[in-house]
Amino acid sequence: MTRDDMIKLAREAGWEYANNYSGFDPLWKFGELVAAAEREACAKVCNDISKDSRGDWKNGAMECEEAIRARGLHDMNKAAEKNGEEL
Q1: Rounded to an integer, what distance in angstroms lies between the CA atom of residue 79 and that of residue 29?
Q2: Cα 68 from chain centroid?
Q3: Is position 87 within any domain?
Q4: CA distance 6 to 27
Q5: Rounded CA separation 69/44 (Å)
Q6: How far is CA 18 from the centre of its chain?
Q7: Distance between CA atoms of residues 57 and 51, nearest Å
Q8: CA separation for the pair 37, 40 (Å, rounded)
């Protein structure tokens, strides 16, 4: 989710905002934390399924877990790159 996506959702929810983006900094951080928690919860569901499954179901659940966690790493790398940082 981009910063503009987050701002659009905040406006739809009735968030009072400043004329510049600085008023959204806490909201942006909150959104990042919520997204990370949701990704981790989804990855744990896939992990639980893989523990109780065999064959293709097990492999699919493990691949799903890895893909969800990789997306989180991708988002972190993208944010760090934008800020001139390295992970």
Answers
A1: 12
A2: 9
A3: no
A4: 8
A5: 10
A6: 25
A7: 10
A8: 5
pLDDT in tens, 24-64: 677 778 888 888 899 999 999 999 999 999 999 999 999 99
CB count in 10 Å sphere of residue 61: 19
DSSP conformation letters of 38-86: HHHHHHHHHHHHHHT--HHHHHHHHHHHHHHHHHHHHHHHHHHHHTT--
Q: Return all residues near 64 (Cβ < 8 A) that are at least 6 apart.
A: 46
- If one counts the domains in the chain, the total is 1
User: Which range marks the domain in which residue 47 is found?
Assistant: 3-82
The more confident residue out of 57 and 17 is 57
